[in-house]
Amino acid sequence: MRLRNKPWAVKLVGEHPESVLDRPDPASKIDWSKRFTDISRPLEIEVGSGKGRFITTLAEQHPEKNFVAVELQITAAGIILRTKLEKKLDNLQILCADAANLDSFFSPHSAETIYLNFSDPWPKSRHEKRRLTYKTFLAKYQAILAPHGHLEFKTDNAGLYAYSVLSMNNFGMHFDFVSVDLHHENDEIVTRNIETEYEHKFAAKGNPIYALHADFGVK
C-alpha cells in the first residue's frame, strides 16, 4: 500500500544521512562498516519494511545483531527513522531503495536472515516477475545469505503463499517451517512471532496468517 506523502518524513530523512541511505546508486557498493558501530554482529534484512513495526521491534529485542530495513517509499522510511531515533537503535540502518537491486547493496553471503513480510502479491500473471518470491529475487537472496542463512516469509494472501511455496520448491529450497495459520501454532512459535502493522490488522479480522521458513541448503 502506498502511503500518503508526509513532508515531515521526507525532511527527517534528509536530516539523517547517517541512518538512511536514500536511493543510493546500485553501481556503488555500500560500506556497511561505516554505518554500524559494530560490523562484526550478525546481519538481518527485512525487504519491504512498511512503517517498520517488525524491524524496529526486532532490533530493540536483539542489540547483539545488526538490521537493515529495505523500503522503497521515502515516507515509510521516515516513519521507520522516527522510531529508530526515539528508541536509539544504533543497530538499525534504513535503505530506501528498490529491492530489484538488493544484491548490489550487500556483499555476497553477508546476511544471516532475510524477512519478507506481507509483500505486495502482484496477483496478475503479467506481474509475476515483480513478486518478491519470483525466481530472480530468490537468486538475489541466495547470493546475499550466508551458507547457514535462511528466509522467513509471512502473508495473509493465500494465492501468494501457494505461489511462493511452489517457486521456492522449484528453486530447490528446503523448508524448515510451514504454516497456514501461524497465530494458532504452538505457544513457542506464537510467542516468538513479531506482528507487522498489516498482520495485526488482518489477524484481528480473523484472517489466517501464512508463514514459512526456508533455506538454500549447503552451498
Description:
By secondary structure, this protein is an alpha/beta fold. About 35% of the residues lie in helices and about 20% in strands. It has one domain (about 5-215): Vaccinia Virus protein VP39 (Rossmann fold, 3-Layer(aba) Sandwich). The longest helix is centred in the middle third of the chain and has 14 residues, at about 75-85.
Highest CATH level, the class = Alpha Beta
Number of domains: 1
Q: In the CATH hierarchy, what is the superfamily?
A: Vaccinia Virus protein VP39
Named CATH architecture:
3-Layer(aba) Sandwich
Beta-strand segment tally: 8
Uncertain segments are: none
Global morphology: globular
Q: Hey, roughly how much beta strand do the residues contain?
A: 15-25%
Question: In which range does the helix fraction lie?
Answer: 25-40%
CATH topology: Rossmann fold
Give a short account of the largest sheet.
Answer: 8 strands, mixed
Report the span from N to C terminus.
36 Å
Give helix and strand order, one letter per element, not per position.
HEEHEHEHEHEHEHHE
List descriptors.
22% strand, globular, 8 strands, 219 residues, 8 helices, Rossmann fold, eight-stranded mixed sheet
Fold blueprint:
Blueprint: H1 7-15, E1 20-22, E2 43-47, H2 53-61, E3 66-70, H3 74-87, E4 92-96, H4 102-105, E5 111-117, H5 135-144, E6 145-155, H6 158-170, E7 174-179, H7 187-192, H8 197-204, E8 210-215
Parallel strand pairs: 1-4, 2-3, 2-5, 3-4, 5-6
Antiparallel strand pairs: 6-8, 7-8
